[in-house]
Amino acid sequence: MVTGNVGALGNNDVSKALPLQYVSNEFWHGAIDIDEQHKDIIRYSYIFAQQDNTKIAEWGNDRVIDLSKHYADEIQVFDTWNHAGEFENAFFSSPFQSTLLKHHKSAFKTKHGHTFTHIFRVKAPLLKKEEALCIIGNGKALKNWGTETPVMMSLENNWWTCKLNLPKESFPLSYKYGVINIKEKKFIRFEDGENRMLYGDADKRKLTIVHDGFAQLPNNTWHGAGVAIPVFSLRSKSSFGIGEFTDVCLLVDWAKKAGLKLIQILPVNDTTATHTFLDSYPYAAISAFALHPIYINLEKVAGKQYAGIIKPLSKKQKQLNELPDVDYEQVLKFKLSALQELYMVQKEDFFKDEDYKKFFEQNKHWLIPYAAFSYLRERNGTSDFSTWQLYREYNKNSINKYVSPKAKHYDSIAVYYFIQYHLHLQLSEATDYAHKNGIILKGDIPIGIYRNSCDAWVNPKLYHMDFQAGAPPDDFAIKGQNWGFPTYNWEEMAKDGFDWWKKRFEQMSNYFDAFRIDHILGFFRIWSIPMSAVEGVMGHFVPAVPVHVNEFSERNIPFNYHRYTKPYINDAVLWEFFHGDFEYVKSQYLQQGKDGLYQLKKGFETQREVENHFAQLEQNDFNQKIKYGLFNLISNVILFELEGSNGKQFHFRIQMDRTPSFRYMEWDKTRLQDLYIDYYFRKQDNFWRDEAMKKLPALKAATNMLVCGEDLGMVPTCVPDVMKRLGILSLEIQRMPKGDTQKEFFHPADAGYLSVVTPSTHDMSTIRGWWEEDRSKTQRFYNSELGQWGDAPYFCEPWINKAVVIQHLFSPAMWSIFQLQDLLGMSETIRRENPHDERINIPADPKHYWRYRMHIALEDLVKQKDFNEELRSYVEESGRA
Question: Please, is 474 exposed, middle or buried when counting C-beta atoms within 10 Å of its C-beta (0-12, 13-18, 19+)?
Fold first, then answer.
């Protein structure tokens, strides 16, 4: 189908798009009539509608016919479908067009005759500045395949274009595109592949436009390297105990010296919910739009005029800045206090500032509710809006009155406008500085929102507030992860075309060129945990096709509702979980059931009830042991019943086959195991593919940022196919091979081009830290991946760290991105003494304190000439500089 901005193409309403007729394996065909009076630009694109009514749009929005410039009775257009997964499309995203390939663009123009029958358009994003395209083919008009004086093309809006007056005898036309060095006036090469063919005629009142897609030139030759580090981890001599947006400029200076082209950071949204270290978790934002006040530079806000206000803080600043890690609570406390003072002395001029007024108008859709939410959080002493006496339910009209400048509390509201504006200025300045130095910024979009957040307060219908998002168990979190976020109500979000997501992407594009979708698997299905549970292991995927009770009988599997859905507790299980304390557990928390089995007493039947009980007791090792033992008992089940199914439909508990309940099953377990495998690894795949294709294409089309997905964990078979289809870059980690491979490690040399390779992420130990975790695994890596003989060194020596980095630099992947700690680990003199002090996050700990900070100031790192030049040499040798 064709959709476009004229009535005959449905006026951009996809449901009214023009259906095309199938002609052959090469062509589809359609025709429309355009009123003679219509002299505007027609913009159009193609859509492939499948039998199940799902629609796949081609990539791009640059098919244009300018009717005001063409006087023809008939316009014939030959287009090539633009598959979103084509490598070249990545180079038309904003980071490449605005920064990375900015200096590659040729300014070459050539004159075309006023009379022409054909327009040829083709793209070639990786041409160098001194290169241009030409078109050569059979017939006099195309120089009879001569390369000495070929027909030159001009670059117009990313299309290489030429206009030709072709006589009838030229057809059928055989041609190719070629590359010319315009400085040396030398023909370099033809494009690859078979000759292109064009059939048709050349009537005087007929114009033919040919969109030939991409010139068949090497399209995977561009490579870049980057550094990943959270903003809070940056250290400069002028910051206030934590990394600040202004420090990004210093990081840019260092990255440029090292030949790096990308800086990747973690989310920088405001997470201020409790004013405690728990807020250090950057994926629990109270607003998907507001920036975090902790990253502000007070000196820039004060300026010279008000420098005296922050001068008394210099002693505290020095004290906090000298700490090895971030003191989150102290830093936030002093910054917020100073910002309150700065607002009060600047507010008169601030509200007159025309740039601020423009910022406010563009952002008031989120800024007003965020400021009101922040004030109400302070007034009520909690961000849990369900407990507020007033405004627990958001009402736009009421809140607009509440934030009126006439209100007594207006300053307590407007201070958040003031803070957000200055954060915007500082991050924008850092972004501009990066771009001027040829470096792009990559942000991070969390998969979830914080339960007690402004977003949930404003529009709770967009979320399933009665569930918790998380992740199933893996090697890094054996009980799974419970992030506590509500899950998304995708059906509700789809009603307005995913407007909340589109606004979120728009906001990110103000500062970032690329972004990482945290846990992209959540767009296929999310790990959903009931509120009655604490551990991730108690969840199941949503959406998912459940197992029907009939499937058990169809496979000759005995079905016992109570045996499968209730915790299986006998004396052997109790001894396994509690050892010598099992009699105490029986007396306090269990009651006798049938056949020598036990049941949990009322009040202890869910993990949440158990957690609430132990929260009131003394926090000691014994109580912790009993609590987690009871968690294990509660999760010792085979099936979770689907609510409302009346005992007819179920979801399997993840890792069912590892439970004592499965182990102590009296009948043959093989068939049950087969049904479990079918449920998790076969039954859902097409279903999940369809779910992702309902969301991701529309969301990706809403932004021109480069999109990367964190596709780690329990990856369904359909995920790689969908990501390739949409041109979303995958993430490849050396110690986490994907798919059905039996390999223990992933080799960077095996990465696909549209991918990011890295030896570690913020959720893992660094190369050096990992080296000391498992001696046997390290030894196998040393022999198989590094190709070394003999015993592996006990510690990760600099040459080993360096070898791993170089492996990744020479990968065929588009991007090699490294944690800063892994790059510093190559140097004996610069790297931190204890690698275990460099870890950023421990996913298994839901209350982890995110406080890692560089041990060397950026000003000093920039001066490390030998190290910087050595790193740059590796980057240059790998072709990534």
Answer: middle
